Amino acid sequence: MNRKRILLGVGIVLLALALLGAGAFVYWANDSAPPMPEALAALKSDEFVQFSDQNGWLVFRPVSQGDTLLKPLNTGFILYPGGRVDYRAYAPLAREIAAHGYLVVVPPMPLNLALLNVNAAAQVMQTFPEIKHWAVGGHSLGGVAASIFANHNSQQAAGLALYASYPSENIQTYPGAVTLIFGTNDGLATPQKIQAAKTNLSPQTLYVPIDGGNHSQFGWYGLQANDNPAAISRDEQQAQIVDATVNMLQTLR
Questions:
Q1: What is the CA 146 to chain-centroid distance, rounded?
Q2: Which of 41, 119, 189, 219 is the most buried (most CB within 10 A)?
Q3: For 13-62, how does the pLDDT look when each residue is reduced to its tens digit (9 = 90+)?
Q4: Cα 34 to the chain's mean position, in Å?
């Protein structure tokens, strides 16, 4: 009898610890970096970009500018947010890429962790059948998740953009275009870590260093813990990210 009570007590304690641990994890994951006011201001339509909230996704479409007719919209980019970062923090970046003539979709992630929904891009692709060429990408942990999706869905994902990120698995045989963009002042995905990760990437990978860029300025949120201050403005860093991403997307047409 005493032994049963002891075992029951131990079981209750272990269950309580498990529940506390799960609760702590959920609290930790949901304690995400909030978007800056500039990011929230990007969540609207204007004469250059049409914005909509579709299925909870942030969707940005280019629009005709005056008498200028855009080419048929047939290329899209799906951007996975960084870990524990509010996905709206990537709205200005997505908006600028869209203004160059691309559909751009930023999906939210469970508990703000893209690794919990690696296949989010699949549903996006099914929703927009008019898009013939897709690329996926992501910032930090979002880039890890995007690389997993691209590597296992190369027929659907013709391109991969890694922002301050590198794959967790070997993707040397991935046949699509890969661009890896990183900041030289990054305190998390440091240049040394990027160099070490090259063994998992295709020899055709294009590396784009941003001189003075850091980890946090890939989005529009505050300085991340353990990151280094940037030596360039957020606007300057974002412009270089947009240019490198658009250059990759142009190869998919």
A1: 7
A2: 219
A3: 444 444 444 344 344 445 689 999 999 999 999 999 999 999 999 999 99
A4: 15
Confidence of residue 122 (pLDDT cuts 50, 70, 90): very high
Neighbours of 33 (CB within 10 A): 21
CATH dotted code for 35-250:
3.40.50.1820
Residue 8 makes CB contacts below 8 A (sequence gap 6+) with none
Band of pLDDT at residue 201, cut at 50, 70 and 90: very high
Q: For residues 137 and 160, what is the distance between their CA atoms, to the nearest angstrom? A: 5
Domain spans in the chain, listed from the N-terminal domain onward? 1-31, 35-250
> What contacts 100, CB < 8 A, 6 or more positions away?
62, 242, 246, 249
Report DSSP state, residue 75: E
Q: Using CA atoms, how far apart are residues 248 and 245, in angstroms rounded to an integer? A: 5
SS3 assignment, position 179: strand
The interaxial angle of helices 120-127 and 141-152, nearest 10 deg, is: 70
